[in-house]
Amino acid sequence: MSVAAGWRDVLVTGMGFCLPGPNRTVCRTGDDLWRTVSGGEPHLDNDGLFYGRVHLGDEEFARAVPELDGRFRDYYSSVHRYGLVALAEACEDAGLDRHGTQLANAAVLTGRAGMDTALETYMEGVTGDPAGTSPAEARALLMRILLSVTATDVASVQAALLRSGGPTYSLSCGCASTNALLGVAARQIADGEVDLAVVTGVDAYSLDRIAHFEELRIASERTGRTSSYAAPTTRLRYDRPMRPYDERADGFNLGEGAATLILESREHAERRGHRAYGRILGQAIRRGATGSALTPDEDGEALVRAVHSALRAKDSHGRIAPSAVPVVNGGAEGDPLFHSMEFKALSSLYAPGPGPEPEREPELAEGTGPLITNHEACFGHSGAPLGVIGAASTLLMMRHGQVCPTANCEKVAEEAPYTVVTGGVPQPLSFDLALSFNYQMGAAAALLLAAPEPIAAAGGRL
Questions:
Q1: What is the pLDDT of residues 171-213, one digit of tens each?
Q2: From CA 321, how far away is CA 341, in angstroms rounded?
Q3: Do residues 348 and 311 touch, judged by C-beta distance below 8 A?
Q4: What are the Ketosynthase family 3 (KS3) domain coordinates in residue numbering (predicted)?
């Protein structure tokens, strides 16, 4: 079987970021991202406080978007700033002039998981005293409220910078938001609704409010009631690093920032003569079929269904078997609950046994399974950006012919069914198909990524 090329193929042609970088710098470009993930380098330690903080100063922000009227900069919250920086970098990487008309009809789509910045502005407005506020202060607060208190805030700000008249909205399904949104944008392009889509995930968190919620959690445990699932309860950690897939994993570190991908039809990209990073072949999200809004999908069954849906046959290719996909960029976050779920799903997906005959020859020897990696410990569990970060790092691994090590994983958990790449150096591997996973409460999302070129029946590129 082969994966053919067509004019409505969905290519990734640009990437940009506003993420924690080394030594209080900002990770902004694909090269910046690669330098971090290729060595599994974490940027979470803030003098003993483990949190992925973005150190974006006013001057760096102003340089990134110099066309932005200085009168408005003070109205923008951290998520607006992060989203605009990531957008500017992605446009430059894609060779698109954001000041002209190239993006006039682009879809501008954002994923959001947390609403801390909106809540802070909202509460400032609710508790403000109109009688004791000057007209100038009242106007400034009103502007911040109008810009910040809806889930579409970053999408609106980005679309205004681009002067885009295309579809503009936000999607929220937790930490799987941009994995799902990449699927939405890909379908818009494949259907001919748009030729270009800008997909951004952005979130920031209030550590004070989260600390308050943690105090509530501790108080609630005094009831003596425990969770209904077998794995240890999910824990947020600030005092030590997160360790995905490690036998010592006991919680996750939060992070903040933004990540943007430019998606483009093959016809549009080739007309511009721009090289692509890769191609989105499929995406699916599935929920565990439980009667609880809070119970996680412990057995991984939802992820298994999501992967099979992402691998389903399309006009360009027949059904792809999991064994034809040699690399998995997982969604584990240093939490035993998600490790267990993901390991069970991978064991089911890659286990030898009878099944429908795939139309693509397997790349993996029976029973060997994929190489597994994860980069959340580089930047922290950042919520909505995770889907874009996972897709970008996977495509960079594909381009470089290397599978990057899992950050902070030193002693792989015994229950890992297949090889987890560790050791601080990437493992060489030429591959043209990969899966990237992300999770939300009770559900799992799978994204199938491919090399930009057509793929031959034997697995090589044409």
A1: 999 999 999 999 999 999 999 999 999 999 999 998 887 777 7
A2: 20
A3: no
A4: 1-452
